[in-house]
From TrEMBL:
InterPro entries noted in UniProt: ATP-grasp, ATP-grasp_carboxylate-amine, ATP_grasp_subdomain_1, PreATP-grasp_dom_sf, PurK, PurK_C, PurT/PurK_preATP-grasp, Rudment_hybrid_motif
Record: residues binding ATP: 99, 139, 144-150, 178-181, 186, 209, 262-263
MF-aspect GO terms: 5-(carboxyamino)imidazole ribonucleotide synthase activity
Family of the protein in this entry: Belongs to the PurK/PurT family.
One Pfam family cited in the UniProt record for this chain: ATP-grasp
Protein's recorded name: N5-carboxyaminoimidazole ribonucleotide synthase
Subunit structure: Homodimer.
Record's catalysed reaction(s): 5-amino-1-(5-phospho-beta-D-ribosyl)imidazole + hydrogencarbonate + ATP = 5-carboxyamino-1-(5-phospho-D-ribosyl)imidazole + ADP + phosphate + 2 H(+)
Gene: purK
Keywords associated with the record: ATP-binding, Ligase, Nucleotide-binding, Purine biosynthesis
EC class: ligase
Presence of keyword Ligase: yes
E.C. designation(s): 6.3.4.18
């Protein structure tokens, strides 16, 4: 009996456990929150990620450790790696946790990014602003997610307000100023690399955000073979350089046919949730296969899929399930503004079928606006 330890007990851990059950796997999650949603059906060790006694107990009860949450302190991951195999490696985690380190790595590998500069102080913000120009975004280097820890500057007049909002974090988590990219669309590569270095990627996914939070994903995205090749080779270069093991996502902006890398997520990713029903092997199953040293499954799509995120509260499941081809995921979380509480995935044989499903789903749930971008992209 193999037990997989997961640091973080949110919906990603929950979906990993769901994918692992048919493989005969057991799970143990570690989380700081008593109400972590994976704990509804997975044993949980509730403890601080820096609590050494808890980490020792966790390590003693599992065969391998992986992450649902990328902001686990790198020292804790490193400490665990001395006791039990940890995938992805603490080094990969450390790079992906830090926007400055990940963007520098991308540039070193010849992958274009938005312009960026580390910001250490208020005068340094002025220096970075003159270097990068407005519009731009001040972001925390670490700990940000779902657009949190970001301040958009329309012009240099916003520097004081930006510093007011985030300056207090310059010394704790660090800050980075990034040029604002007027992209045509957002894409992501969700890929998996095995312990033996073999690499597979799911078809390119197109993403829509609302208020900095992922709202919809469409896969496979419509893209030229050249663009797909470029996106996949970027993902592979990053994975090989980090000797990465497991699933990760590379978020990209497409601007005038060029790809700029925004960030990488060292874990299964929201833009890969469509793979549960829309691909031969899901990101969750392939992540488990990778960290356990099992052969990888096929990343081929089964037709065309669209995932819609439910943020804040769940719409009416019954109305959604009445639309053929729609699959429902309720994370068992209590509703709260800005919180991801579930998602739905529509899968069809082709674009036309998916388009009609999405129009029906949008109407059934009163979510016409949320599906509109995807419907337009399919049209
Ligand atoms: P995630 O939940 O994806 O981890 P995050 O908090 O790490 O989000 P980002 O991915 O950096 O934040 O930003 C969230 C969204 O804000 C992006 O998907 C994009 O829509 C927008 N955004 C971020 N950086 C830029 C940029 N430099 N130019 C234009 N838009 C941007
Ligand atoms: Mg992020
Ligand atoms: Mg992001």
């Amino acid at each position: 009996m193999t037990t997989v330890g997961i640091l973080g007990g949110g919906q990603l851990a929950r979906m990993l456990a769901l994918a692992g059950a048919p493989l005969g796997l057991r799970f143990l999650v570690m989380d700081q929150a008593a109400d972590a949603c994976a704990a509804q059906f997975v044993p949980m060790l509730k403890a601080d990620y820096t609590d050494e006694a808890a980490l020792a107990e966790f390590a003693s009860r599992v065969d391998v450790v992986t992450f649902d949450f990328e902001n686990v302190p790198a020292q804790s991951a490193q400490w665990l790696a001395g006791k039990v195999p940890v995938f992805p490696s603490p080094r990969a985690l450390a790079v992906a946790q830090d926007r400055l380190a990940e963007k520098s790595l991308f540039n070193d590998l010849g992958i274009a990014t938005p312009r960026f500069s580390a910001v250490a102080s208020r005068p340094d913000l002025d220096r970075a602003l003159s270097e990068i120009g407005a519009p731009c975004i001040l972001k925390t280097r670490r700990l940000g997610y779902d657009g949190k820890g970001q301040f958009r500057l329309a012009s240099s007049d916003d520097a004081d307000a930006a510093w007011e909002a985030l300056g207090g974090q310059a010394e704790t988590v660090g800050l980075i100023l990034e040029g604002f990219v007027a992209f045509q669309r957002e894409l992501s590569v969700v890929a998996v690399r095995a312990r033996d270095g073999s690499f597979r990627a799911w078809p390119l996914t197109q993403n829509w955000h609302a208020k900095g939070i992922l709202s919809a994903s469409l896969a496979p995205a419509d893209a030229s073979p050249a663009l797909i090749d470029q996106a996949l080779s970027h993902a592979r270069a990053v994975a090989d350089e980090l000797d990465y093991v497991g699933v990760f996502a590379l978020e990209l902006f497409e601007r005038d046919g060029e790809l700029l890398a925004n960030e990488m997520a060292p874990r299964v990713h929201n833009s890969g949730h469509w793979t549960i029903e829309g691909a031969e092997c899901s990101q969750f199953e392939n992540h488990l296969r990778a960290v356990l040293g099992l052969p990888l499954g096929s990343c081929d799509a089964r037709g065309r899929a669209c995932m819609l995120n439910w943020v804040g509260e769940l719409p009416d499941a019954r109305a959604a399930l009445a639309v053929a081809g729609v699959h429902w995921h309720d994370y068992g979380k209590s509703p709260r503004e800005g919180r991801k509480v579930g998602h739905a995935t529509a899968v069809a044989e082709n674009a036309r079928g998916l388009e009609s499903q999405l129009i029906a789903l949008g109407q059934a749930l009163g979510r016409e606006k949320q599906v509109s971008g995807v419907v337009a992209a399919l049209g």
